[in-house]
Amino acid sequence: MIVRYATYEDLNTIVALEKLSFPFTTWNKTQWEYEFKENPCAHILVLEESKVFAYIDFWLLYEQAEICKIAVVEPLRRKGAGSILLKEAMKIMLENGVERINLEVRTNNYAAIELYKKFGFEIVQTKEKYYEDGQDAYQMIWKGETCPR
Ligand SMILES: CC(C)(COP(=O)(O)OP(=O)(O)OC[C@H]1O[C@@H](n2cnc3c(N)ncnc32)[C@H](O)[C@@H]1OP(=O)(O)O)[C@@H](O)C(=O)NCCC(=O)NCCS
Fold first, then answer.
1. Does any ligand 1 atom lie closer than 6 A to the CB of residue 118?
2. Would the CB of 149 count as within 6 Å of ligand 1?
């Protein structure tokens, strides 16, 4: 398995994985094109083994970072891929002086919440009706007290 920075050639694969992984809050191709070409804060990593099957998109904002998207194609979940991507992303963040990482996650997304907790994230608040479909989000943060495994 290889973790690497995504290139523009990965765009269509990421858009396809995105549709499968985020049925309610799908970023379309235009939004991903913006991430690749115009968002100076965006960092996109992919995981591949013969082909790309997982990605993470995060923003570096000086001493803070925001995890925007992380997804692993369904048949390959729960085999450590999400952890590999998150660990690599957090390594890059720490190398860039990040002291606090922020994210929002659906309150019913047990898998993602458990993944983030494993890496030292804590739920700090519930944002009611945060998503377009009316679902609540937890805001989770990592403040540097715990090291990524
Ligand atoms: C969240 C997601 C990226 C996790 O990726 P993954 O490759 O399955 O995660 P890992 O195999 O590295 O799991 C790491 C830990 O997360 C937790 N976890 C992952 N999936 C879980 C599940 N289905 N149930 C409970 N805990 C789970 C466990 O603590 C697990 O450690 P363990 O296997 O040693 O118990 C994946 O489920 C996914 O793509 N979901 C759809 C997209 C999404 O919701 N992204 C998050 C948006 S905020």
1. yes
2. no
pLDDT tens digits for 47-100?
A: 999 999 999 999 999 999 999 999 999 999 999 999 999 999 999 999 999 999
CA angle 131, 100, 89 (to 5 degrees): 80
**Euclidean distance between CA atoms 56 and 143, whole angstroms:** 20
Q: Is 109 a pocket residue for ligand 1 (Cβ < 6 Å)? A: yes
Helix or strand holding residue 5 (H, E): strand 2-5
Cβ of 80 closer than 6 Å to ligand 1, yes or no, is yes
3-state SS class at 66: strand
**Are 100 and 121 a contacting pair, CB within 8 Å?**
no
Answer yes or no: pTM beyond 0.85.
yes
Protein residue with least CA distance to atom 10, ligand 1: 80
Residue nearest to atom 40 of ligand 1 (CA): 71
**Structural domains in the chain?**
2-102 (3.40.630.30)
Residue nearest atom 4 of ligand 1, based on CA coordinates: 82
Distances (CA, A) of 45 to 2, 27, 88, 90, 147: 10, 16, 9, 11, 20
